[in-house]
Amino acid sequence: MKREPVFIYSTAYTDYHFNADHPFNQQRVVMTKELLEAEGRLFDHQIVTPRLAKEDELALVHDPRYIEAVKQAGNGQLQQEEAWQFGLGTEDTPMFSGMHEAASLLVGGTLTAIDSVLNNRAPQALNLGGGLHHGFKRKASGFCIYNDAAVAIKYIREHYGLRVLYVDTDAHHGDGVQSFFYHDPEVCTLSIHETGRYLFPGTGSTSERGVKNGYGYTFNLPVDAFTEDESFISLYESAFKEVAEYFQPDIIITQNGADAHCYDPLTHLCSTTKTFEVIPRLAKEIAEQYCGGKWIGLGGGGYDIWRVVPRVWGQLWSVMMTGDILTGPLPAEWKGKWERMSPVSLPDNWQDEAGIYKPIPRKQEITEKNRLTLNQCLQYCRNKQQYNNS
Amino acid sequence: MLVEEIMKTKVITLTPKSTIAEALKILNEHPIRHIPIVNSGKQVVGIVSDRDVRDASPSIFQQDHASDELYNPIHTIMSTPVVTVHPLDFVEEIAAIFYEQEFACVPVVSENKLVGIVTEKDMLYTLIQLTGTNVQSSQLEVKVPDRAGILPEVANIFGKRKVNITSVLIYPYKSDRQYKILVFRFQTMNPLPIKADLKAAGYQVLGPDAEDPAL
């Protein structure tokens, strides 16, 4: 039987729900799945139900006191005064009933994805419920409670001993994941994000390169506000290719936040669907070149759940499964169903039309600035490569 | 913020009779650029910088030259008298000293004895702490009229949303002194509700959203 990628999915992903006004909304995973089914790109036999992450698995990266606090918060037993220190009960990560279980399921989904690939059931796996890259050892932040990517990477290191390349294209810096592997030369992280000048979390400058043995295995590429497709794609391609060549990974994990799109309400980048067609294509290509195809894709940010996320993540799965992107109009039945609930009118096609945002007057400066940032980001590994080759 | 909160208390010193060679050795072995010169009572009698020491060392182009000058005593090249500060001085006063005197290090002296040292680098570290860029946060700038009571009014909007402010800076608005800019760094990934509240309260929010072409 032909090995196919697996799509990790459960309707219970929507239990990870802070409140009705909160921008983080897992309904986007449901919308993506239904879009792919309507398009004839996703079938029942490809869908795998996520397992719950066990507490000792969460404890691979999280402090047991923090896990305990999340459990209490989910039972309504954590006082606000106690909760502050864990980042709980804030506007970003409010406490809600059953939050421990809901967050554990997202982590379990990513572990299910890892096991599917590393037990040879599937060449690749996608868990759109995961990618919660702001979770810290003992602190929730940026809508993230448990850090599924970090748990998964530790899990791979302990059970399989593979060298992991983590590539994060969310518009926000992947600070949580970076923090867990800052000292580890066997895990390389590459985060491309909007500069932290205005945007949360503010970190992720090119000078953050790791410490001790891990120095030179953390890469940060902060791009200017209003960066467009052309510049974003050129930076992404150069950085991903060079870092892969330098690090020689055994497996690739990508965090595929969809919030670099110009419609995203929280960020100031100006990507269109074009960027999000290139992102998975190159990931697949590099996984094939270095890792025998082993690639796990995760979700992440993405706050225009109507116009942006389903199409972006739909392409991610399409490329993972077939190598090709989808084109043409969106399926009418899908559009008909969701248009009724959407506050904005849904796009007609898989591809954005030209002119969905006004021209950026500083385009040339931004492009130039980004190119300089790329050189700064890669200088260390270029020097090292040059030294090794001479 | 007080000097004693940011000063380094482990200070490498020499005495006036130490040689330039000793100073050179210290500068080569430690990541420092200034050495206070103290007498037996730990009083600061001078200071030398790495440039003073190198200026007094033989040129690297004269390798066969017998380098007697290296054995000259340090008091022949040290700067004196020395500008010093007290542990209870304010950090911003040191910034003014560095700016006006154009050097980059002051010994900290209490009861006439050396107790610490503050360098340009410590000042920059403090500046990073003050601006709050070292912790997770979003940033926004608000243009407000320059009048009493404005800061608590604006800050209250963050408090009502249960959003923790990590840093506040205030500076005058370009040429129009009737206004000032409040810069906030605050711990949330979603600044939209706060921006909406600020606008609803009549304040002008600056920054990239104001020119976002998709909005």
Automatic annotation (TrEMBL), chain A:
Known pathway: Ketone degradation; acetoin degradation
One record GO biological process: acetoin catabolic process
Keywords: Acetoin catabolism
Keyword Glycosyltransferase in record: no
Record bears the keyword RNA-binding: no
CDD domains: HDAC_AcuC_like
InterPro entries, per the entry: AcuC (IPR003085), HDACs (IPR000286), His_deacetylse_dom (IPR023801), His_deacetylse_dom_sf (IPR037138), Ureohydrolase_dom_sf (IPR023696)
Family as reported in the entry's similarity comment: Belongs to the histone deacetylase family.
Protein name as it appears in the record: Acetoin utilization protein AcuC
Lineage of the species this protein comes from: Bacteria, Bacillati, Bacillota, Bacilli, Bacillales
From TrEMBL, chain B:
Domain of life: Bacteria
Gene3D superfamilies cross-referenced by the UniProt entry: CBS-domain (3.10.580.10)
Keywords: CBS domain
Family annotation (Pfam families): ACT, CBS
InterPro entries attached to this UniProt entry: ACT-like_dom_sf (IPR045865), ACT_dom (IPR002912), CBS_dom (IPR000644), CBS_dom_sf (IPR046342), Diverse_CBS-Domain (IPR051257)
PROSITE patterns reported in the protein's UniProt record: ACT, CBS
Stretches assigned to the CBS domain: 7-67, 78-137
Taxonomic path: Bacteria, Bacillati, Bacillota, Bacilli, Bacillales
Protein name as it appears in the record: Acetoin utilization protein AcuB
Domain ACT: 139-213
Species of the source: Sediminibacillus halophilus
